[in-house]
Design a protein that fits this description.
heterodimer, A: about 140 residues, alpha+beta, 4 helices, B: about 130 residues, five-stranded antiparallel beta sheet, 5 strands, about 20% helix
Chain lengths: ~140, ~130
């Protein structure tokens, strides 16, 4: 199977709607019950004014995209480095995307470095960063 | 724990991790990962390890109990190998840096995940901003 390995090549991405049900399910599955994700009254008192999704949920979307595009190597040597730049709020559909930015050799291994992002409907990036994966 | 007690170099854990197939499936399902070609081949989602440690860290620091406004600002993770269902993993976290900026506490935690033999399976870094 051919994997994205040409500079400028887009990764196969996807869109996903982040509902409050999904945020709640993620809280239960991960154990992260921070009230900013779950408690409407508490969240209203924060700078965000409402409940927000876990940043790790957005990162999980990126993880999924990398697994889709590099199924045999991502889980054995993949590295992700991301910043959460804007909160995703429930009922937003986000776009998960990536592009090959750099090819290099590290420790004798050919690596692909991708720029990755999760973008909110208003165009704001909820997550930006890089993901580096061995080619073989 | 009081936030004033946080000090660079402070150790957290060790956290024992063991996810059953049901735990692992619940996590993957919660992310909405249902694309046909994608699966974890009977293994734990690596982010599940990190998410678990984050949940323990925020509990140990008292973020949930004291309802402290918190922002997860950044995350890094490197996976060295896959982790099987019901495999015993131990996570050790270190508060790598902790600084006060305009009343907010910026903390960077570094975590190492090792298996029963002490071999590394993953490592991560989490940047958390707390606004007491």
């Amino acid at each position: 199977m051919s994997v994205p390995s040409t500079l400028g090549q887009s990764l196969r991405g996807f869109r996903r709607t982040v509902t409050q049900d999904r945020v709640t399910a993620y809280a239960h599955a991960s154990g992260d019950h921070n009230p900013i994700h779950l408690d409407e009254d508490f969240a209203a008192s924060t700078r965000f004014g409402r409940r927000i999704a876990h940043g790790m949920l957005s990162l999980a979307f990126v993880w999924e995209m990398m697994s889709l595009n590099y199924p045999t190597t991502w889980h054995r040597g993949g590295t992700v480095k991301t910043r959460f730049t804007s909160p995703v709020v429930p009922n937003e559909e986000v776009a998960v995307s990536g592009i090959v930015k750099r090819l290099r050799t590290i420790g004798g291994k050919q690596m692909v470095e991708c720029e990755v992002a999760v973008t909110r409907p208003n165009g704001e990036k909820a997550l930006t960063g890089s993901a580096t994966v061995p080619l073989a | 724990m009081n936030l004033d007690d946080l000090k660079s170099g402070q150790l957290f854990g060790p956290y024992a991790i063991e996810f059953t197939r049901s735990d692992a499936d619940d996590y993957i399902s919660a992310t909405g990962d249902d694309l046909t070609p994608h699966n974890f081949g009977g293994n734990v989602h690596p982010l599940h390890l990190d998410a678990f440690v984050l949940s323990r860290l925020i509990a140990d620091i008292g973020i949930v109990e004291n309802r402290i406004e918190t922002v997860h600002a950044g995350q890094q993770m490197t996976v060295h190998r896959e982790v099987a269902h019901s495999e015993n993993i131990v996570a050790n976290a270190t508060l790598k840096s902790c600084s006060n900026r305009r009343g907010s506490i910026w903390a960077i935690f570094e975590t190492e995940f090792v298996d029963h033999s002490g071999a590394a399976v993953a490592d991560s870094s989490s940047t958390i901003i707390m606004m007491p």
